[in-house]
Amino acid sequence: MSTRLSKLGRLIDRTKQVSFSFNGTTMRGFAGDTLASALLANDQMMMGRSFKYHRPRGVVASGAEEPNALVGLGEGSRFEPNQRATTTELFEGLSAKSQNHWPNLDFDIGAVNTAFARFLPAGFYYKMFIHPQPFWKHVYEPFIRKSAGLGKAPDAETRDADTYEHFYAFTDVLIIGGGVAGLQAAKAAALTGVKVLLVEQTAHWGGRAPVDGGTIDEGPVDKFVEQIVSELETMDNVTMRLRCMGAGIYDHGYALAYERLTDHAPQVAGPRHRLWRIRAKQIVTATGAIERPLSFAGNDVPGVMLASAMRDYVVNWGVTPGERVVVATNNDDAYRTAITLKNAGVDVLRILDARASGGGALADEVRALGIRVDPGKAIAKVSGGKRVKKVSICNQEGIGGARDEVSCDAVAMSGGWSPVVHLWSHCGGKLIWDDAQAHFRPDPDRPPLGADGAGFVSVAGAANGALALGETLSDANAAGLAAAKAAGGKAKRPKAPLGESAAELPMEPVWLMPANADTPLRVKSWLDFQNDVKVSDVQLAAREGYESVEHTKRYTTLGMATDQGKLSNINGLAILADALNAEIPQVGTTTFRPPYTPISMGAIGGEARGEVFQPIRRTPLHDWHDRNGADWEPVGHWRRPYAYQLPGESVEAAVNREVKNTRENLGLLDASTLGKLIVKGPDAGRFLDMMYTNMMSTLKPGKCRYGLMCSENGFLIDDGVVARIDEDTWLCHTTTGGAERIHAHMEEWLQTEWWDWKVYVANVTEQYAQVAVVGPNARKVLEKLGGMDVSKEALPFMEWRDGQIGGFDCRAYRISFSGELSYEIAVAASRGQAFWDALTEAGKEFGVMPYGTECLHILRAEKGFIMIGDETDGTVIPQDLGLHWALSKKKEDYLGKRAQQRSHMADPDRWKLVGLETVDGSVLPDGAYAVGEGTNANGQRNMIGRVTSTYYSANLDRGIAMGLVKHGPDRMGEVIEIPGTDGKSYKAKIVDPVFFDKDGEKQNV
Amino acid sequence: MSEPISALNGARYDGIATIEELGLQGMITLRGDLDEKGLAKAAAAATDQQMPGPRKAHVTDDSGLCWMSPDEVLVLVPYAEVEDKLAGMVKALGNSHALAVNVSDARAVFRVSGTHAREVVAKLAPVDLSDGAFKPGDFRRTRLAQVAAAFWMEEDGAFRIVCFRSVADYVFKLLKVAAQPGSEVGVL
C-alpha cells in the first residue's frame, strides 16, 4: 500500500492537518501536500481511468508532466475539469472527483473497451467510423462522445465565480524556472545590475535538486537554495514569483507567465489567476528536465511510477507509494530512488538495470545497502489490475521469455531524462540530438531570433542537457551572465558555486523493454498514458505508411492529450524511428506550442468579463433613454434605442407609434453617435474632392451637401452630410459605425499617399450631443425655445448656422434623413441632457416623442434613402443604387472612380436598386432572394435580386421594401417572386424606391 | 443655463488605489508642426507651459501641454476658459497651417492615486510603469484594455487618465476591477 512515513516530508507541515474529499470520501493530509501526495498518503493509488480503454490509472509523476492523475476540482461555479493532482496544492475543504468512469472509479462499465482493444487500433476513428454514413450521426458519434473524452465541461448555466487579470511587465532578463539553475542564472544576471524577473511554476524554490542530493559549495543543496533565495530577495533589481509558470515565448521578447494566486487558498480575496504579459530583452529558460518512462507491458498499472517521482513523494511529502518496490532503469540516476526508499525503511526488492554492465558508484552504494542489482535485466510485464501485484523479469536483450517473478506493490522506472525544451522551441529555437544522453536538447547555434537577428532566448542547466549538479550550476551561471550582457548588463564575472554529485556511468537508450518484446507485450506497453497510445499503435502507423512524425501524431493521437506528450514524446518517436529504420534525429519532433501546460480561459480573458467584457459606448443621453423605455440595439460599440416602449407596449407597437408621430407631430432622435470629422487646411477642399465622389471644394461656407465615399475599389464605404464651416474647414458627418474607420481612412491617405498636402483631420464625434428635431412641429418647438432664427428664409434646407437655442450654444443643421421638416442641433456633450430636457418640455404641446433607430430606418426607407450596411455590403457601387447624380463628372479623379470603370462595374447586368411592393401588402422577409427562370449549374434556381431593406410602414399601412434587382429600373411594374424561409413565396411589384412624398414637399417648408 | 455635467459626475472608488472621475477639463487638440515657433508660442500663451518633448506632459493644475504625436499636442486649459483660449490660439496661429479644435466635452478624465496606482494602470495598459521607466511628467498615448486612452503622472505619483467620454463608464469599471481588494501585485 501507499502510506505516510513517520519521517521525511520537507514540504509538509505535520502540525497542520487539512481535510479534503475525493469522490465524496473525506480524507486527511497536511499543509504543503499536493492532492496527489495526500491521496497516496490515504492509499488512494488509483486516481482515474484512461481516455480510450478506461484502464485504471494511478499517479505516475510528481509535477506538471503528470498524464494520469487528472481530477475534476471544485463544485458548481468553481468546478474545473482535468486538473492535475500533482500540481494541485491541498487546502482545507478541497473537493476532487476522478474522471472517465461510470458508474464509479472502482467499477467502470467503459473498461470493457479494453477487451475490445484490438478493435480500437491506431487511426480507429478514421477506419471504423466512415461507413455506413448514417451510422456516424446515430451510432458512432453518441457512442464516442459517451465513452471518450476527459473531464466534464462545467455546467453551461454556471458562471465562473472568480476574477482574473492581466499584468504588463517589462524586464531586461526573464528567467523561467526557479530550480537551482534558474536561481543561479538569476543571480549571475542580477549582479550585472540588469532587471531580472524570475518565475517558478511550483510553490517552492530549488526545483528537484534538494531531492536528488549532492552538495553545493560543500554544503547541502537545501541550504544553498535558502541562501541564494534570501540573497536574491534583497536585490532591488530582482522580482521573484512563485506559482507563476512561464507559459509561452513569442516574437520580440514577448512572453506569457501564468500566476496562480488563490488556487491554493480560495478564501483569499483578489483575482484567482494573473496572466503576466512580459516584454524581456533576453529570456533564459531554466525549465529542467523530465524523466522518461520505460515502455514495458503493464507500465500503466497503478503503482508504476517514474523513479524520480517516487523519491519526490518520499523526500518532499513523506509518502511512500509502496512497501515492496522494484526499480527498472537504464541509467544511474534511478539508483538514487532505491537509496532514498531504503533509507526511508521501504523494501527495495531489486534493481533491474537494462545495461549489461550495470551501474557505477551509485550502484555500489545500493549494493552496500543490501539491495540486489540485476544487470542486463528488464521487466517483461507488470501484473495487477488496479494495483501492481507482481513483476515478471526477463533479459533486456530478447523477446521477453524465461521469466522470473517478483511480487511487489510498486515499480519505479527510469528511461533517462529529456530536457524541457518547450519554451525554447515556442518561438523557433532548434534542437540537436545528444547521442550520449539520448535526448534532444537546445542547439545553441540556432536560438529563437529577435528583430535584430540575434538570439533572445538561451537555456540554463538541465534544460540544456547539463544534468549533473556541477554542470547544471556552471551552465546556469554562464547562461545568466550571457543573457544579462546581451541585455546591457555591466560585465561581472560571478563565480559559479561548486556542485558535486556522485559520478554516473553513461545511460543506454532503452526504447522498448525487453528490446525485442513480442506482440502480446507490445500491445500492453504504453507510450501515451493520457490518450492510450501503445507501442503497437505507433508501429502499426508506420506499417500503414505514416512516415512523418506530425502525421503519426495525429493518426495515433500520440501526444495530443492535455499533457501534450510530456512523457510520451521521445519514446514515441524513438519507436517510430525504429519502425521506419531511421535515426531519431531524422524523424524529428512534433511542434512544441504554447502554453506549456493548459492555462485557464479566465486568465486569457483577464478582466474582460461581466460588465467590462466589452466597452459599451454611451451617448450623453444614454441614462435618459434607459429610464424612458429604450429597447437597446447595438450599433458598433454604441447602444442606441431601437424604440422607446411605453408601459405595456410591445416594441412593434412602439415603433409604429413613433413612425406616425414623427410624420404627424414631432420626433426627437439622439443622433450623437453619428461621426463628425473636422477636416482643415489649404488643401482640405482638394482632399475632400478625392475622398468623396461628389464635389466638396465648391460648397459654400454655411451650406451642407450629402456625399458618398468609396474605397479605391469603387465600392461604397460611407455616406453623410458635409458642412463647410469656413474657407479651409469642413465638417464631415459619417455613419455611426464609420466614424473611427473613416477617420483612419482619411489619415491613411494623408500619411501614405498625399503626405505633402496641407490637411489636418480631427475626430470630434463625442464633443457634441446632437439631437434631430423632426416633424411638422420641429420649427415651432425651436421657435418656442427661442434664440436664433430658424425660419425657412434664415436657415434654408441644406444649410447650417451657429447660434443659441433656448440659451444653449449650438450649431443647427437643416438636414433631413426622414423627409420631414428637420433640424439637427449640436450642443456641447456636457449640456446634451439639459438641452434634450428643454426640448422635451417645450415640445409637450406639439406632441413630442423620442424615436429610435427602427423608426429612423422606416422613415428613410419610406423616402427611398439608402443606408450604408443595408443597401450596401461592400460589393455595391453608387451606380447600383441610382446615385449617379452624386458622382461628379467634372472631377478628374476621386477614390473609386477608375475602379468603377472596370468592365464588371460597368456591366448593365449588375443588380440595381428598386422599390418592392408586395402584391398583398405583407412585409417581405429581410435578405430574401428573388428567383428567376431556370436553374444554375448546381441545380439551384437562378437568382435575380435580393431584398436589402424591408419594413412595415405604419404611415402607408403596408410593407415597403428596397432591393437590388437585375435590370430592376427597366422593369417597373413587373411582379417578381421572392421565396421566404417561412415556406411562403412572396410576390412583389417593382416600383420606384420613394414611397412617400415623392416631391419632397414636407421637408421643404 | 444649466451647469455642464461630466460623464460620470464625479464617481469614486476606493480599492488598492483610489479612482476618481474628475470634472470637466478644457482640452484643445492642436495639430501642426510642433517645432514651428509660432505654434509653440501660441500653445505656451494659452497654458503658460513650454512645448513638451515626445511622450512628455507639462501640466500644472488644469493647464498644460501633452505630447500626442509628432504633429499633435493636447492643450489643457480650465474648462470655463476653453472658448476664449481657443479663440486666442486660433488668432495667434494666424495663417500658419494648423488645426485647433475644442474637444473638452469629448473626453472624460480620471485620477488614479495611492500606493498601488502604478500596478492598477499596468494591469490595463501595455506600458512599462516601473518607477525607473515612468516618472512624473511622463505621458503615454496608449490603451486601457479595449479602448484608447492617454495618461500622465503627476508630481505626487498619481495618474491623470484621459479617455473618450462615451467609454467613461467602461473605463471607470475597468479601473475598479483592476483596483479590487487583494489584487496587489507587489512589484511596482
UniProtKB/TrEMBL annotation, chain A:
SUPFAM superfamilies found in the cross-reference section: Aminomethyltransferase beta-barrel domain, FAD/NAD(P)-binding domain, Folate-binding domain
Sequence ranges assigned to domain GCVT N-terminal in this UniProt record: 621-891
Domain of life from the UniProt record: Bacteria
UniProtKB keywords: Oxidoreductase
Name of protein: Sarcosine oxidase subunit alpha family protein
Tagged with keyword Oxidoreductase: yes
Entry's family note: Belongs to the GcvT family.
Keyword set includes Iron-sulfur: no
Domain FAD/NAD(P)-binding span(s) in chain numbering: 172-423
Every SoxA A3 domain range: 524-605
NCBIfam families: soxA
Segments crossing the lipid bilayer: none
Aminomethyltransferase C-terminal domain ranges (all copies): 912-997
UniProtKB/TrEMBL annotation, chain B:
The species this protein was found in: Ruegeria spongiae
Protein name from the UniProt record: Sarcosine oxidase subunit gamma
InterPro entries given in the database record: SoxG (IPR007375), TrmE/GcvT-like (IPR027266)
Superkingdom, taxonomy of origin: Bacteria
Signal peptide start and end residues: none
